[in-house]
C-alpha cells in the first residue's frame, strides 16, 4: 500500500478503535449509574451515519474522525423533563460523576493491558541486543565494537534490542552520561560510558539517536538456505557456509554481501567466492544473474538467503503474558510521565511531541511490521490518550475531575462562570499543544534528522 494512503488508513483504524473504546467507557459507566445518554458519537461535526437504539440513544459516526463524545442528559444544556430528573447528570452524587468521567481514560488503560497481553501471547518479535556503531559516532568513540552484546544499560539488565533502546532513550532525554556493560564475540565483558552530556540541547530523540549511532549489528554472512538451480546451489554452496570474500574482496557481514556481489558482478558475472566450511576456507566459482526480487529494482543475485539476526522473541502463556503486560504498562506509564516532567522542566525538548501526522506514519510502519508491533502501537497510543485526558486541563476529563475535587473540598460545585473561563483556557492550551505537535511533524518531514 502507498505510504500516504497506508498512513491515512491505519490512522483511521487506530483512532476508530481507541476513540470508540474511550467513549464506550463513559457510556457504559453512565448507563450503570442511571444517567440517560442522548448521543454516542465517534467523530465530530455532521453525522455520516446514525441510528437510534431501543434505549433512545442516538449512535452516530461523524465526518471529522479526530475524537468523539458521549452527550448525556444535562440540565446545563436545557430544560429537563421532571420525569427524567433522576437520570440527569448534574444531580448525580459526586462519586457517580467522578466514575463516569474517569471511565474513558480507565477504559483506555484496560485496552492497553489487553493489547499488550495479546501481543505477548502471540509473540513479540525482537532481536538480541547485538550492536555495532556508525563510523565517527558517539557510540564508536565510547568503544562499541561490531558484534558487542549489550548486557546492562544504566545498571539494569537488558535482553532485547527494543528493551535496550527504551532504556537508552530515557537517558538521551536527560543528556546525562550513561553507563553500559557489553560483552564481545568471545564473551569478554567491558564497562563503557556513553557521554550523552555532549549532545546539543533542544533536539528531538530521533536527532539524538542519530548522533549516538548505536545500531543493531548485521549477522555474519552465513548461508541459511540455497535455491535449487540457482548459481550458488549449482556451485555447491550449502546452508551453514560462511562467505568470507567475493573476488578477493572481504565480506564484512550479511549486509555487505549483496553490495560486494553487485560491485564484482558489474565487472564480470563470473564470481569466485571464498567460503568457510567446517573451519576450512574453500573457493567456489559461479555465474551471478540479474533478477528483480519481489518486483523491485534489478540486481545481481546468486540465490542464497542469509541467517537473520539473533532473535529474542517474547512469547508467553496467558498468565505470564498478563504479568508482563502489567509490567510493560507500568513501565510505559512512568516513561511517559518522566518525559512530560522533563519537557516541563526544560530537560527535554518539546520537539519530542508528535501530532496526527506523526501518529499516522507510526501507525502505518507498525502495521507493516506485523500484528505484534501494531498491537504494541495501539497499546501505547491508548495509554497516551489516557494520560493526556487525565491532565488537569479544562475541557479534558482531567479538568472535570479537578472541578469535582474542588467540589469535594469546598462542599459546592464550581461556579458556571469559573467553568466557562476554564473552558476558554483549556481550549487555548489544547490548541497550543496541537499546533506545536503539528509544527514538529511538518519540521520532521521538511528537515529530517
Tell me what the structure shows.
The protein is an alpha+beta fold. It has a domain at 223-306: Pdz3 Domain (Roll), CATH 2.30.42.10. Helices cover 47% and strands 21% of the residues. It contains 12 helices and 16 strands. Strands 3, 4, 5, 6, 7 and 8 form a 6-stranded antiparallel sheet that branches. Strands 11-10-12-13 form a 4-stranded antiparallel sheet. Strands 1-2 form a two-stranded antiparallel sheet. A hairpin with a 5-residue loop joins β1 (37-52) and β2 (58-72).
Question: Characteristics of this structure?
Answer:
4-stranded antiparallel beta sheet, 47% helix, 21% strand, 449 residues, Pdz3 Domain, 6-stranded antiparallel beta sheet, alpha+beta
| Shape by Cα distribution | elongated
CATH topology of the domain at 223-306: Pdz3 Domain
What is the residue-mean pLDDT, rounded to a whole number? 89
Helix content: 40-55%
The count of DSSP E runs of length 2 or more, i.e. the number of strands, is 16
Brief account:
This protein has 449 residues and is α+β, with helices and mostly antiparallel strands. The protein is built from 12 helices and 16 strands.
Amino acid at each position: 500500500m502507498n505510504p500516504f494512503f497506508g498512513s491515512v488508513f491505519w490512522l483511521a483504524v487506530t483512532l476508530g478503535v481507541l476513540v470508540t473504546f474511550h467513549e464506550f467507557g463513559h457510556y457504559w459507566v453512565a448507563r450503570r449509574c442511571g444517567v440517560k445518554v442522548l448521543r454516542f458519537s465517534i467523530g465530530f461535526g455532521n453525522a455520516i451515519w446514525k441510528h437510534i437504539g431501543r434505549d433512545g440513544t442516538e449512535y452516530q459516526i461523524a465526518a471529522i474522525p479526530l475524537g468523539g463524545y458521549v452527550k448525556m442528559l444535562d440540565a446545563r444544556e436545557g430544560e429537563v423533563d421532571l420525569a427524567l430528573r433522576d437520570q440527569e447528570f448534574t444531580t448525580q452524587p459526586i462519586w457517580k460523576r467522578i466514575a463516569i468521567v474517569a471511565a474513558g481514560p480507565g477504559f483506555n488503560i484496560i485496552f492497553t493491558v489487553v493489547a499488550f497481553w495479546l501481543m505477548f501471547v502471540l509473540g513479540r518479535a525482537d532481536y538480541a541486543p547485538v550492536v555495532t556503531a556508525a563510523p565517527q559516532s558517539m557510540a564508536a568513540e565510547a568503544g562499541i565494537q561490531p558484534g558487542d552484546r549489550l548486557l546492562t544499560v544504566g545498571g539494569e539488565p537488558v535482553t532485547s534490542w527494543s528493551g535496550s533502546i527504551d532504556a537508552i532513550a530515557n537517558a538521551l532525554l536527560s543528556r546525562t552520561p550513561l553507563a553500559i556493560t557489553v560483552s564481545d564475540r568471545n564473551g569478554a565483558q567491558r564497562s563503557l560510558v556513553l557521554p550523552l552530556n555532549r549532545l546539543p540541547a533542544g533536539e528531538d530523540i530521533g536527532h539524538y539517536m542519530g548522533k549516538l549511532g548505536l545500531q543493531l549489528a548485521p549477522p555474519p554472512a552465513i548461508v541459511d538456505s540455497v535455491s535449487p538451480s540457482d548459481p550458488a546451489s549449482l556451485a555447491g554452496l550449502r546452508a551453514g557456509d560462511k562467505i568470507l570474500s567475493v573476488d578477493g574482496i572481504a565480506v564484512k557481514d550479511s549486509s555487505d554481501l549483496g553490495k560486494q556481489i553487485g560491485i564484482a558482478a558489474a565487472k564480470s558475472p563470473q564470481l569466485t567466492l571464498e567460503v568457510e566450511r567446517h573451519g576450512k576456507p574453500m573457493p567456489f566459482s559461479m555465474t551471478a544473474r540479474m533478477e528483480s526480487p519481489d518486483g523491485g529494482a534489478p540486481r545481481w543475485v546468486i540465490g542464497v538467503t542469509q541467517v537473520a539476526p539473533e532473535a529474542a522473541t517474547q512469547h508467553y502463556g496467558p498468565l505470564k503474558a498478563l504479568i508482563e503486560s502489567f509490567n510493560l504498562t507500568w513501565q510505559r506509564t512512568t516513561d511517559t510521565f518522566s518525559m512530560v516532567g522533563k519537557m516541563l522542566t526544560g530537560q527535554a525538548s518539546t520537539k519530542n511531541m508528535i501530532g496526527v501526522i506523526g501518529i499516522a506514519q507510526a501507525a502505518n510502519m507498525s502495521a507493516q511490521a506485523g500484528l505484534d508491533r501494531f498491537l504494541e502501537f495501539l497499546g501505547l497510543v491508548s495509554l497516551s490518550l489516557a494520560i493526556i485526558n487525565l491532565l488537569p486541563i479544562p475541557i479534558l476529563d482531567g479538568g472535570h475531575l479537578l472541578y469535582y475535587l474542588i467540589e469535594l473540598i469546598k462542599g459546592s460545585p464550581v461556579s458556571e462562570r469559573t467553568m466557562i473561563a476554564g473552558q476558554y483556557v483549556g481550549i487555548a492550551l489544547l490548541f497550543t499543544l496541537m499546533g506545536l505537535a503539528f509544527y514538529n511533524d511538518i519540521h520532521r518531514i521538511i528537515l529530517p534528522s
